[in-house]
Automatic annotation (TrEMBL):
Belongs to the FAD-dependent glycerol-3-phosphate dehydrogenase family. Keywords: FAD, Flavoprotein, Oxidoreductase. It comes from Vitreoscilla massiliensis. This is FAD-dependent oxidoreductase. Residues 3-308 form the FAD dependent oxidoreductase domain. Its cofactor is FAD.
């Protein structure tokens, strides 16, 4: 039986290990820290297509991700749920109503058959009934649309349990410093997310793919929230989320390019940026004292755009010798990315 080492027990490496085990390979999964210790527990907790990626024409990715949401809801309904989000529209502010209406309709079309309710327009009164703290001045109403919400850490641990159930071995606190350490394996998967270049750079040829490290921070306010919101950042193309999460309000995220893979705590500037964005839309402003916690993670994005906001959330593979390097991706599509990584690996094993 072929023996495969997967390095990196984030959601991408774990889904790859799970797919390989389902196909009958013997798999050892290594992590320098622990499963889901890094980016995979620092997400916005959304199983989503990404409404905003429609603006950059990423229809294939959005379609794939919209369909992928249902996999998680069916497999682990105790760790994720459908979530209704509102996108409020204000007169003369942000994107026009027709544009968001078109986007949500396209979202419905691409999500067709995925089992999620369709989007709809809500009047200003209905919007305020659901989200009473929103600013009322110039509010026209809101588009309601659906995505999924998960507990990313626990859902990741659930995937690791599937690996253990299929007799995969999981080694935590076990860094792989050199590829030579794994020379006895038939194949190696480098799924180390933000650290992918560390093992890749040990091979002779230059990497075919470049990645961008883009930190994203979130903050928590110790208040329950009735209604999830997606809002445009004032005077920017970016959007941010205000989400109910485990009895608190979660606000995020930022996109800060950095020159290394390690995550840093949310900076004061990021916290202020998120608070100011929230306060633009709400009658009762939040202050620094309302923030009870923050967290941050680093996205390993394929380098393809000047503005990290426009970077694709697609993934790429590169095979060098018996090593498959995995770049990019997103949580929602990790299971199909894991299957695709398997297919890619089969090409080099045969
Ligand atoms: C702020 C933010 C918000 C996001 N929101 C969403 C969202 O709402 N929905 C969504 O679908 N996606 C979201 N994403 C994207 C998603 O979280 C990531 O695409 C995904 O978690 C990346 O997983 P990964 O396995 O590649 O990386 P990681 O989770 O970082 O896993 C890599 C693992 O490799 C290990 N490792 C590294 N080097 C070594 C080594 N040498 N030896 C052994 N182990 C090693 C690390 O310890 C780590 O556990 C978000 C990302 C961020 C940062």
């Amino acid at each position: 039986m072929k023996k495969i080492a997967v390095v990196g027990a984030g959601i991408i490496g774990s889904c790859t290990a799970w797919s390989l085990l389902k196909r009958g390979y013997q798999v050892d999964l290594y992590d320098k820290d622990a499963p889901m210790a890094h980016t995979s527990q620092s997400s916005s907790k959304l199983l989503h297509g990404g409404l905003r990626y429609l603006e950059t024409g990423q229809f294939k990715l959005v379609h794939k991700a919209l369909q992928a949401r249902q996999f998680w809801l069916q497999q682990a309904p105790h760790l994720c749920r459908q979530l209704e989000l509102l996108f409020p529209i204000y007169k003369h502010e942000g994107r026009p109503k027709w544009q968001i209406g078109l986007g949500t309709k396209l979202y419905d079309v691409l999500a067709n058959g995925s089992g999620f309710p369709k989007s709809k327009w809500l009047s200003a009164d209905e919007t305020l009934r659901r989200s009473p703290h929103l600013n009322t001045h110039n509010l026209l109403g809101a588009y309601s649309f659906y995505d999924g919400q998960m507990d990313d850490y626990q859902l990741g641990q659930w995937v690791v349990q599937q690996i253990l159930d299929l007799h995969g071995q999981v080694f935590t606190g076990r860094p792989v410093n050199t590829l030579a350490e794994l020379q006895d394996y038939d194949a190696i998967v480098n799924a180390t997310g933000p650290w992918v270049m560390h093992l890749r750079s040990q091979q002779d040829t230059p990497p075919a793919i470049a990645i961008d490290w883009v930190r994203g921070s979130h903050l928590f306010v110790d208040q329950p929230l009735q209604q999830a919101l997606m809002l445009p950042i004032p005077n920017e193309k970016r959007i941010f989320f205000v989400l109910p999460y485990q009895g608190k309000t979660m606000i995020g995220t930022t996109e800060i390019r950095q020159d290394h893979p390690e995550s840093e705590p949310a900076s004061e500037a990021e916290i202020d940026y998120l608070l100011q964005s929230y306060n633009q839309y709400h009658q009762q402003p939040l202050s620094r004292a309302d923030v009870c916690d923050t967290f941050a993670g680093v996205r390993p994005l394929l380098k393809d755009a000047i503005n990290p906001s426009n970077s694709t959330r697609e993934w790429a593979f590169e095979t060098v010798g018996k090593v498959l390097h995995v770049y990019g991706g997103k949580w929602t599509t990790a299971q199909i990315q894991g299957e695709a990584a398997c297919e890619e690996l089969l090409k080099c094993l045969n």
